[in-house]
Design goal:
The protein has helices spanning 2-30, 41-76, 81-93, 95-105, 119-130, 136-143, 157-171. It has 172 residues and is mainly α. The protein is globular and about 50 Å long.
């Protein structure tokens, strides 16, 4: 059992890093005035596609992790089941996350239309995923807020993953 717990800790630690870095890259670029220049539009779109691709993949990895290791988590740290399940539901209920993964991030063509998505279609899917074009910061903070250590960890995906990881470490 110890080996499985260590495996879980390793996966969760990787998820924390991958999600946090993707969010931090966007936030750091957003603070730079030059990032918003019209001449930087293509670069800005690339940064967003890169970071949101990572966010989508790692959100889906979190769901996959909880499916594959759920019995271990529920047996060892049942007190975190509610928090764990909250983010599974949020990810699974966000149809744009699934669509982006299936139609763009993991494939060169949409699985339904059998055509490559245009840049505008990708951008519109990202906007749908975050809940509107003015919700970027709100969405990013729900994944990984600034100064996460001073927040309620259960209020973000990365915080919840930290709670799970730390609870498992305590059981080693």
């Amino acid at each position: 059992m110890r080996k499985k717990i260590e495996e879980c800790v390793s996966i969760l630690t990787s998820l924390i890093g991958d999600l946090s870095v993707a969010v931090e890259v966007i936030k750091d670029y957003e603070k730079q005035p030059s990032f918003h220049l019209e001449s930087e539009k293509e670069f800005r779109q690339c940064v967003y596609r890169l970071c949101f691709s990572s966010i989508v993949i790692n959100c889906r990895k979190y769901v996959e992790f909880t499916a594959k290791y759920g019995q271990i988590l529920n047996a060892i740290i049942p007190e975190h089941q509610e928090h764990k399940n909250k983010y599974i539901a949020l990810i699974n209920n966000n149809n744009a996350i699934k669509a982006l993964r299936n139609d763009y991030i993991a494939h060169v063509q949409s699985s339904s239309t059998k055509k490559a998505l245009t840049e505008l279609e990708v951008q519109n899917s990202i906007v749908e995923m975050i809940g509107g074009e003015h919700n970027t910061l709100l969405f990013l903070n729900s994944i990984s807020p600034d100064n996460i250590e001073s927040t309620d960890l259960a209020d973000s995906l990365v915080g919840t993953i930290q709670l799970l990881r730390d609870a498992l470490v305590d059981k080693l």
